[in-house]
Task: inverse folding
């Protein structure tokens, strides 16, 4: 009586298919440096635009930045308390800032409909509120002063679930 074929086949497989015995090449582990959220390039000496953030404790923080930098990137680069939950896609209101000077506010581009929709959800909305991620520094905005609101509203799906 011969042994069942099903038992012998796995034992013979390496002999029948020698290519399965090839050594598996060892791949080295490669790593890359972790990327920071922002990479703002400091402006050349004497060419920076000034922006001041007023934090929740009313402390003023002034930075020298480049034209084209947006307020969210600046705030996060300098560890100001601005969450930016949606990563700057105008889909939250956690980058809400209040422009201190109405004249400066008038120099900014009009907010888009998306930005206005999100601003409607912002905590402590004012006439000069903007989403920081949507405001880019320009020469006209040199000297801008913005206040960080005392709170931000970060809506999550759990906010809409029924509480027991
Ligand atoms: S970071 Fe979400 S709207 Fe600005």
Result:
């Amino acid at each position: 009586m011969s042994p069942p074929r099903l038992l012998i086949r796995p034992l013979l497989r390496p002999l029948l298919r020698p290519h399965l015995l090839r050594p598996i090449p060892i791949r080295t582990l490669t790593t890359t440096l972790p990327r920071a959220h922002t990479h703002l390039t400091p402006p050349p000496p004497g060419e920076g635009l000034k922006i001041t953030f007023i934090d929740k404790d009313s402390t003023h923080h002034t930075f020298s930045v480049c034209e084209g930098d947006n307020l969210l990137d600046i705030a996060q680069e300098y560890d100001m308390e601005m969450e930016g939950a949606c990563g700057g896609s105008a889909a939250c209101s956690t980058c809400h800032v209040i422009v201190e000077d109405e004249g400066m506010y008038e120099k900014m581009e009009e907010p888009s409909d998306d930005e206005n929709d999100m601003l409607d959800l912002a905590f402590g909305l004012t006439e000069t509120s903007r989403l920081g991620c949507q405001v880019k520094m320009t020469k006209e905005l040199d000297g801008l002063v913005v206040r960080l609101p005392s709170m931000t509203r970060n809506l999550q799906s759990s906010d809409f679930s029924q509480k027991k």
Q: What stands out?
A: The chain is about 20% helix and 15% strand. The chain has a mean pLDDT of 85. Residues 5-16 form the longest helix (12 residues).
